[in-house]
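Z., the sequence and structure:
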Amino acid sequence: MSTRPEILWSLFGDLTALNGIGPKTGQALQGLGVEVPRDLLFTLPHTGISRRVRDTVQGADLPSVLTVEVEVIAHRAPSKRGAPYRIDVEDSALRFPLVFFRSHDSYLTKILPVGSRRVVSGKVESFDGVAQMVHPDHVLPLDEADEIPPFEPVYPLTAGVTQKIMARATADLMTQLPELGEWIDPDLIAQKGWPDWFDALISVHAPIDMNDVTAEAPARQRLAYDELFAHQVTLGLARASRRAKSGLSSVATGRLQNRVLKSLPFAPTAAQTRAIAEIGADLAATNKMNRLLQGDVGSGKTLVALMALLVAVEAGGQGVLMAPTEILARQHLEGLQPLAEKAGVVLEILTGRDKGAERQAKLAALARGDIQILVGTHAVFQGDVAFADLRLAIIDEQHRFGVKQRMELGQKGAAVDVLVMTATPIPRSLALANYGDMDVSVLDEKPAGRKPIQTAMVSTDRISEVVEHLKRAVSEGRQAYWVCPLVEDSEVSDLSSAEDRFKHLRAALGEDVVGLVHGQMPPADKDAAMANFVAGNTSVLVATTVIEVGVNVPNATIMVIERAESFGLAQLHQLRGRVGRGSAASTCLLLYQAPLSETGSKRLTTMRETEDGFRISEVDLEMRGAGDVLGTVQSGLPRFQIADLERQSALMQVAQSDARRFLEADPNLTSQRGQAVRHLLWLMKKDEAIRLISVG
């Protein structure tokens, strides 16, 4: 790996070289993730306190932090042990006490001698109608009063680290900042009115007022952009390095695809046609495909996936489609099997359930090339699974797989093309943060004939009416899901359990009418319950969220979600997408327990007002934050120190287009701006990018 440029050495040196940081404090700072001076630089104040000097405490809104010049009038030592020490002081209009607990008399008489004038600053509260300042933050003689900043930044802290330590060390660090070249496009800086890097850091660490500590402040925006731009350059370099690796060219003949298209009772949507063409072009190219197919609930990803797999088969190879769970893998099999038969293609499934001779027979057929398309769970990753000529791997619901697994799969064939699919609409800023190295195809239309789903909010005290409504629907031959939040009643939760709801509905609707499926059931029982519902043997399926993704029963037209306020927006949207799959009108009832909290109310009204998954995902992001929307743990979503993906999402889009333009013009980072970008990548600890540049 190339070595760190000398100009940045001081920022990656020893923390104890900074004013006020000894070995002990250096150790304590690790609690904030601060290990070198550079980390301190990007630990920004999260708020600030005005300490402008005022004439008097009188008339101020209490409690608040105030700074006043006072004369020390008298000391009142405590009469009994444990009582506070009081010092009476007087400003231009009011006499009030400074109050100290557990302080030494000698120390207090030294810093606040009677008759002296001092500037004191601290929180003033009203106690029994009298203003008092408890433990002032600052007590200074008049000639040192300018040491108190008019507006004091407030840093995040950890055990063993005080505001004074943070302020002193940061102020020292500011005097040692290196002068670095500009890595942002000059036109963008002019257009946004951003300061240069040096001035931006000075501004965020020495704010003048509250406006300077908001995410909208120009200096903060600029530093957030630095972080996002470095991230996008890293993804761009990874993308270029992947593209440089030669893949196999799989050229479609159209022979098998046309058989399937002719057999369909409908025409594909414009979005499906566009996605099929984009994937076909990627597969025909000689470098590796790396594409994300993002489709909302019910947008027809299965057809697009099959068309892509058929390209691999038309080119003489094989394709694999992987799903995160067995239920989903079987669902894909059911959706794809009839279409594969129309094309005359051999399609098989491989899951953890395949054992012994049956498994061996499948593996042998796969290795000979007799199985052209394989559907499976992560069992496909196992070492003994070998393909004759794997051309395309499709991964469904990628955010449930780690990036590492994505790479392992890519090593199964000589130069496998990878297509990732997700039915979870991801806000654009998060898609760029997580999948910015990929090309993206979006399915943003519903296939013809899909009717809108009527969504209504119903209070749980009207549950008997809902059951009556269900009784009528069942007698008309319709099917319904009833989703419950928890499997077993726990003492801490009053969320109704699936077991109880199942018993209650069987009593109301009839024993044979209601089925039950939940996460704790043995897989065979779960599959049997699902199969009964799919076949129409049961009319109502009481379920936990195991049915969230991928279950497809066109005759099911009613979705009841109990205690809907306890679910996240993305989950509610996925659950609602289980109905509205046939030609009949569908309903989704959101049962909630009154009174609704503000967030609960916003969630449910958003669901009632729109079916657009992308709109819903943006609201979800505003309400919950980036980590929760994708599930940071699984998604590998990058952690940003300064950038706020919820409030600065537009910056991510600018950063991506800027990074792509920059890398097209200077792929090896050799220009003057390229050298500055190298410094930025070191500053942002982008080791992966640095490795790619040094290899390149």
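The first strand starts at residue 47 and ends at 50. The CA atoms of residues 18 and 169 lie 6 Å apart.

Let me know what you think.
H.
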